[in-house]
Specification:
Shape of chain C: globular
Largest interface: A-B, 68 and 85 residues
Number of helices of chain C: 13
Number of strands of chain B: 4
Chains: A alpha/beta (about 450), B mainly alpha (about 350), C mainly alpha (about 325), D alpha/beta (about 280)
Mean pLDDT of chain C: 84
Structural class of chain B: mainly alpha
Number of helices of chain B: 14
Radius of gyration of chain B: 21 Å
Distance between the termini of chain C: 50 Å
Distance between the termini of chain B: 12 Å
Shape of chain B: globular
Strand content of chain C: under 5%
Low-confidence stretches of chain B: none
Largest sheet of chain C: 2 strands, antiparallel
CATH topology of chain B: ABC transporter involved in vitamin B12 uptake, BtuC
Number of domains of chain B: 1
Strand order of the largest sheet of chain C: 1-2
Helix content of chain C: 55-70%
Oligomer: heterotetramer
Strand order of the largest sheet of chain B: 1-4
CATH class of chain B: Mainly Alpha
Radius of gyration of chain C: 21 Å
Order of helices and strands of chain C: HHHHHHEEHHHHHHH
């Protein structure tokens, strides 16, 4: 039995190769703040991921170029490609956490879920801006996770509120049919509990149309079902290649586009453009600025893109998802700045960063200072509320670009908050013994 | 010169049938075990343990599992990922139903469920062979993946749809959940993998291993020699799925900490299949070599440019990794279709006659 | 429960005939596209006995090349010509680098090699054209984009996308062209000779290498057509690759070497999937499309292990 | 053990005549067809305990199909098979094996990925009983069983004089040796009836002589009944006690070699006289 004798030396080869992997851990730079960016520019979600990655990278890079970093300390940026794959995401996390990472932005609800339990142990906060686990908004249970400015549950409540407005009041929702088409993964399933709750409360019928990751580009069955069921409104929680396909299919079955509303992640310019003329009237939520008419974006163009320091195509600056990425980096940068102020240190740690994020207060004045007046609703994080349930607005596709179509709409905090707390308690119970919060509140 | 069995006489069949009849191999194994159990734990950092050693061992075990089925019994399977998933979900359910039971026992027990599922999907193998059988296993892959998504009970109706591994203690140590240290996880994974590899080495050299290889090499002749094809194939499916199931459970319990259905997708099936083919079909040692190659090479490629100071965009590295892995697979298939295991044999042969060419 | 399974779906079909027709049409179009992918497999399998796993990625690769060239300012038709050229180079390269050195290896090794090729092409395609999905240049290629609604008075309407009609027409033309190519040309005859018996073909002076390069090129052209059609329905992106798996059950039904089989198999899977999903899928939460095709093929296999058009296999010792 | 290999042989035919023998297997009116093509039509014959029975006939006469029917690989549409006094119609190949029917194949059907030793050990499969869990542990019962059977296998290896290739994968052996290993594998089953399908096809004279010697030894020393298909008439006439001749799936002659040789039908069949 030759094969068995190989077992020994086979393993030797393996271990030998493996050992050389030890060399891959690099030392941490002394005088910079290290921010790893988990991004994805490949795979089925790249269409959305690329713009986010560009926005995140460019803003922080711009701070380096224009201001020499934050508080006089440069930012060390490193992108790690996750491909929206949880396994690769964890690998990126493990590879970078030892270098003094300040914060992680997984950009995938799946990866976020995996990092949540690790955050408290490794003392590195997770910033899942407008995605991830909704319950993480409860700061007393999840001190290390931040989902400012809104949770998915906030978003779902805004959509229902908006639909109610269109129908002349939430009471008129009774007997209506609202279809919910979503990516059948952690991401798309996250808002369902809230939608079900609201459906019960307002008497509308919720119809679910899951789209598997594998079927993202082949949604004809889902949309045939939509055609049969004839819902009054469609709500979408899509990402990556799912968005343009869904919009195309909706056009195909002649669904009235003004009654089709996407989450803020289904708000990409390419997504809507895929539908051609037929996509006119498609709506999506948003909480980051529309267009490129902001001084900070001009600075990015000047210092980074035109200087050839980025792979960004200048035309995409100002796109919804690009701006979303910028907003994400604004929060990171402000978190670092706040942490520096709180601790008096220039080079900070993950624990400092956590405090910085928890004390984040991005008010109108500060936004103006940053050259981003009107780019986002002023936002504030408290120890108790890591999301803040900030207002969002609805934008509409006019066939060539997005236009703001509503004012700022407040989420239904009264419905959402108790659910969040219940969900957080349930999470802690399921994951018992979940550590009780010991981190002091900086506010 | 140094690798030579001359002078080592076997005076009993027992000695001749030992796992490693040649002294140098036995010494080699001891050295490896010493490295695995002593040197690595002492010197390795967390990254090395968590991102290289633990996945490597998990994948090695999965590759052994697939090798039993494909390499030893000759039944091509593209459903490895799903069978690993069955193990993971079963272990998760077990540990949430019996929170006080030893989680390591639960992980080992979870394989029983995947073995049962594997045997069910192995049933058509009596009538279907080769590529046709691949369709059966693809059906298993996609059907089970669908179950992981649609059957809420499997993931305790978590809103996220993912299984999140709870904190568990055993032998006074935290063994799963975020607080479990890499070293503890490493030891558990190492012991389970080494243990199962050893037990499989036993099975494969005996009657049952032979009956699998008989089916693989010539199923008709095997049947005419008294091998019951269905029982034998089903046993291979069950054993293979058991091992894959345990590997899948270890993957989520001791490595990833949480898993979505997409963690056990067809991509994983292919990854394991690559390991088996490149390592060498029908070779236990090959499973380890294949796993090392397929897992560690991309990790390497990913972090090397940064380490040596070349600034390459993350996605470019990813693309190039795909190209290199793809090209290397073709390259190795051309150079040695029987995998690293055969290359290793050839090297040993050369070593044996060294310094002479023949 | 029994009512939901055995009666209700048929009542629905009767109640909403327009919807049922729409479902059939969608199934038909999906079936055509599956058949096109399967066709690529059949061509290569016939000539070389290789199950070309890379057919799926070739579809993506062809589509990407076309769109990528156009994005970089190449006019659509020139881009199409260049893409055809690229598929030719790919075919030659595959024959030269992969097929020739691996001749006479067991099936599983060849299968693995094409999986390796898949990985390589994914990396290469993303490296050159980027990883994000792209819009198919439907209009630039002169393909129709609109839709026609056929109304049945008050009983509703069926919407036909022009691109889907075009896909059906192109598929028919493609099969016809391949049929003529196989039956009427010298190369086609040589190809059939190779399919029957490699050794015998060699002995009458047919160059295997040349034939293989030609079939890979033909498969590349089929991939291009598939890529354009599928890309026009959704996007050109690497997620399309998953569709290639569907070719396997199609081939099981139709047989690995039969071109008509690929078409019939594709249509069975296309219809079966859509009807199953829309009328029975809801009973178990939907999404059964992802595995229904395999289960159909599996059930089929249990009763007819040789496929729809295959001959009964007699085992010999 | 080597004792019986050294001691070689008188005329086998004389042994056959010496003792009246009981019937081991009888085939009655067996017909087999594949989708309309008749492979075997209404054939009956018997095999007596301890004899060497030859089945001959031109190519395509249905000889191999006949063996396949006997060991359960094909199921005849008509007719019965009586094995050790028990009548049967349908039987799975592994059941035939467990009842003591072993065989070799026209085109060597060894397990190519395994060594000579393992190939012959595979013949012991039916006689080994330690279950999966004992196998996992190996130490103790499983190992003892393995060693016990290894001894038997080593005896066969000695008998067939293939000690030197014990650990060689059979795929690398020359054809003649492969045939010998295949015989060894069948012998390891300690069968009551050994079916040999062209044991000497493609061999040179020397190899044929060796093989003939082994066949006779097996028959005489182990008392194994043998049914063989062979094209070499010389070999058939020398070895066999009785011969059955098939042509186009029908039996055309049956009897001692000398009678068959003189039979006009047989001569016609071999010369290809049209029907």
């Amino acid at each position: 039995m030759k094969s068995i004798t190989q077992l020994a030396l086979g393993t030797a080869v393996a271990v030998g190769v493996a050992f050389s992997g030890l060399a891959t851990t690099a030392a941490q730079a002394e005088d910079s703040n290290y921010v790893p960016l988990l991004t994805y520019r490949t795979g089925p979600f790249a269409a959305s991921g690329i713009h986010i990655a560009n926005g995140m990278h460019d803003y922080l890079k711009m701070l380096n170029e224009r201001d020499g970093g934050i508080g006089g300390v440069k930012l060390e940026l490193e992108e790690c490609e996750t491909g929206y794959n949880a396994q690769k995401g964890v690998e990126c996390y493990e590879a970078t956490k030892g270098k003094g990472a300040l914060v992680y932005n997984p950009y995938s609800t799946g990866i976020t879920l995996q990092l949540i339990p690790k955050a408290g142990v490794d003392k590195i906060p997770v910033l899942s801006m407008g995605y991830g686990l909704s319950a993480a908004a409860v700061g007393s249970v999840f001190p290390w996770v931040f989902n400012v400015p809104d949770t998915y549950w906030d978003g779902a409540s805004v959509v229902i509120k908006y639909i109610g407005e269109q129908e002349g009041g939430l009471d008129n929702l009774k007997g209506k049919k609202i279809g919910y088409i979503f990516l059948d993964a952690g991401y798309g399933r996250e808002p369902i509990p809230l939608l079900e709750q609201l459906s019960e409360k307002y008497g509308f019928e919720l119809m679910q149309y899951p789209v598997g990751v594998k079927e993202m580009q082949n949604q004809s069955s889902q949309w045939l079902n939509v055609r049969r069921d004839r819902p009054d409104y469609m709500v979408m929680w899509g990402w990556g290649a799912m968005n343009p396909t869904a919009i195309k299919e909706a056009v195909k079955i002649r669904f009235p586009m003004d009654k089709f509303i996407g989450v803020w992640w289904s708000a990409g310019d390419d997504d809507a453009a895929a539908g051609g003329d037929g996509a006119k009237g498609y709506k999506a939520m948003n909480f980051s600025g529309v267009g490129s008419d902001f001084p900070a974006l001009d600075d990015i163009k000047k210092h980074v893109v035109d200087a050839g320091l980025s792979s960004t195509d200048a035309e995409t600056i100002g796109g919804t998802l690009y701006n979303r990425g910028v907003l994400n980096s604004v929060i990171i940068a402000e978190g670092i700045r706040t942490a520096q102020e709180l601790t008096g240190k220039k080079v900070i740690t993950g624990e400092d960063m956590r405090m910085g994020l928890e004390a984040l207060n991005l008010d109108e004045a500060r936004l103006k200072e940053l050259g981003l007046s009107g780019f986002a609703h002023p936002m504030k994080v408290t120890c108790d509320d890591h999301a803040g349930s900030h207002p969002v607005f609805i934008q509409e596709w006019d066939g060539s670009q997005w236009r703001q179509a509503s004012g700022w709409i407040e989420p239904m905090t009264d419905v959402v908050r108790p659910l969040l707390e219940a969900a957080a308690a349930e999470y802690a119970e399921k994951n018992a013994p979940w550590p009780a919060r010991t981190e002091p509140c900086p506010n | 010169m140094f690798y030579r069995e001359a002078g080592q006489f076997k005076t009993s069949y027992k000695a001749d049938q030992a796992l490693m009849p040649i002294l140098q191999d036995r010494v080699g194994l001891l050295v490896i075990l010493a490295i695995a159990f002593v040197v690595i734990p002492v010197f390795a950092n967390d990254f090395f343990l968590t991102s290289i050693m633990i996945p490597f061992l998990v994948f090695s075990l999965a590759a052994i599992g697939l090798n039993v089925l494909t390499g030893f019994c000759g039944q091509l399977s593209l459903g490895t990922g799903a069978f690993m998933g069955v193990g993971a979900y079963a272990a998760y359910k077990l540990t949430t139903i019996f929170p006080d039971a030893n989680v390591i026992v639960m992980v080992l027990l979870s394989g029983v469920f995947s073995a049962a599922i594997g045997a069910i999907f192995g049933l058509p193998s009596l009538r279907i062979k080769g590529l046709y059988l691949a369709v059966t296993t693809l059906a298993a892959q996609f059907f089970l993946e669908w179950c992981f998504i649609r059957i809420g009970w499997l993931y305790n109706y978590n809103a996220s749809g993912a299984i999140e591994i709870p904190h568990r203690e055993a032998f006074g140590l935290v063994v799963s959940g975020a607080e479990a240290t890499p070293i503890v996880r490493y030891f558990i994974v190492l012991c389970i993998t080494a243990g199962i590899a050893f037990l499989m080495a036993n099975v494969l050299r005996g009657r049952i291993g032979r009956s699998w290889m008989m089916i693989r090499d010539m199923d008709i002749a095997a049947e005419l020699m008294g091998i019951r094809p269905l029982q034998t194939k089903l046993l291979a499916f069950a054993v293979s799925s058991y091992i894959c199931g345990v590997a899948g459970a270890m993957m989520v319990f001791f490595w990833l900490n949480a898993a979505e259905p997409s963690s056990y997708s067809i991509a994983l099936s292919f990854q394991i299949l690559f390991m088996v083919i490149l390592g060498g079909l029908g070779s236990l040692g090959g499973a380890f070599m294949g796993a090392a190659f397929i897992w560690i090479l991309p990790v390497f490629l990913k972090f090397i440019p940064g380490t040596i100071g070349i600034d390459v965009a993350a996605e470019t590295v990813e693309h190039v990794t795909f190209m290199i892995v793809g090209a290397l697979i073709i390259f190795f298939l051309i150079v040695e279709p029987h995998g690293f295991a055969r290359l290793w044999q050839i090297a040993k042969q050369k070593l044996r006659v060294w310094p002479f060419p023949y | 429960m029994l009512y939901d399974i055995f009666i209700d779906p048929f009542v629905q079909m009767y109640d909403m005939p327009d919807f049922f027709l729409q479902v059939l049409w969608e199934g038909f179009v999906a079936g055509i596209l599956y058949a096109l992918i399967a066709l690529g497999f059949v061509l290569i399998f016939k000539a070389s006995g290789v199950f070309n796993f890379a057919q799926g990625i070739m579809v993506v690769f062809a589509g990407l090349t076309l769109v990528g060239l156009n994005e970089n300012g190449v006019p659509a038709y020139l881009a199409l010509a260049l893409t055809i050229g690229a598929m030719g180079i790919l075919a030659y390269g595959v024959e030269r680098v992969v097929m020739r050195p691996l001749v006479n290896q067991p099936d599983i090794i060849l299968l693995m090699a094409t999986i390796g090729l898949t990985y390589f092409l994914i990396g290469f395609g993303e490296f050159v054209f980027g990883g994000e999905p792209k819009q198919m240049i439907t209009e630039e290629l002169g393909l129709p984009t609109g839709s026609t609604a056929i109304e049945f008075g008050d009983r509703g309407l069926v919407i036909l996308q022009h691109i889907d009609i075009a896909a059906a027409v192109i598929a028919v033309l493609m099969v016809a062209a391949l049929g003529i190519f196989f039956n009427k040309t010298r190369i086609g005859r040589a190809l059939r000779a190779v399919a029957d018996d490699h050794q015998a073909a060699l002995s009458v002076g047919i160059s295997l290498n040349q034939i293989w390069a030609i079939v890979w090129f033909a498969a590349g052209l089929v991939a291009l057509a598939t890529g354009i059609m599928w890309g026009a329905r959704s996007d050109v992106s690497f997620a399309l690759e998953i569709v290639a798996f569907k070719a396997l059950p199609v081939l099981i039904l139709g047989g690995f070497t039969s071109i008509p089989g690929a078409i019939v198999g594709g249509l069975i899977i296309g219809f079966g999937e859509k009807i199953g999903e829309l009328y029975w899928g809801g009973l178990v939460g939907g999404g059964i499309e992802s595995w229904l095709a395999y289960i159909i093929a599996l059930i089929f296999l249990l009763f007819r292990p040789q496929g729809l058009f295959g001959e009964r296999i007699i085992e010999r010792v | 053990m080597n004792a019986f290999a050294t001691e070689m042989s008188a005329e086998p035919a004389s042994v056959a005549e010496a003792v009246p023998r009981e019937e081991l297997l009888r085939v009655d009116n067996v017909s087999l067809s594949f989708g309309g093509v008749k492979a075997i039509t209404d054939i009956s014959f018997d095999i007596l305990k301890g004899e060497i029975r030859a089945i001959i006939g031109p190519n395509g006469a249905g000889k191999t199909s006949m063996l396949n029917v006997i060991n359960g690989f094909y199921h005849p549409q008509q007719g019965t098979i009586t094995w050790q006094g028990k009548e049967r119609r349908k039987m799975k190949p592994y059941e035939a094996a467990s009842q003591g029917i072993a065989r070799t194949f026209q085109n060597v059907a060894l397990f190519k990925g395994m060594t000579t030793l393992d190939n012959i050990m595979s013949g012991r499969s039916l006689k080994m009983h330690r279950n999966f869990f004992w196998q996992l542990i190996w130490r103790g019962p499983a190992e003892r069983e393995e060693i016990e059977h290894r001894k038997k296998v080593e005896e066969i290896i000695d008998f067939l004089e293939i000690q030197a290739i014990r650990k060689t994968p059979v795929g690398r052996l020359p054809y003649g040796l492969q045939k010998r290993v295949e015989l060894g594998r069948a012998l390891a089953m300690e069968p009551d009836l050994l079916l040999l399908d062209e044991p000497m096809a493609g061999m040179n004279l020397e190899e044929k002589e060796d093989m003939s010697r082994f066949i006779i030894d097996v028959n005489q020393e182990f008392g194994t009944t043998i049914a063989l298909i062979e094209h070499d008439m010389g070999v058939v006439m020398d070895l066999s006690d009785r011969v059955v001749v098939l042509d186009y799936g029908k039996k055309i002659a049956d009897g001692p070699p000398e009678d068959v040789q003189a039979n006009q039908n047989v001569i016609d069949a071999y010369l290809g006289v049209s029907h």
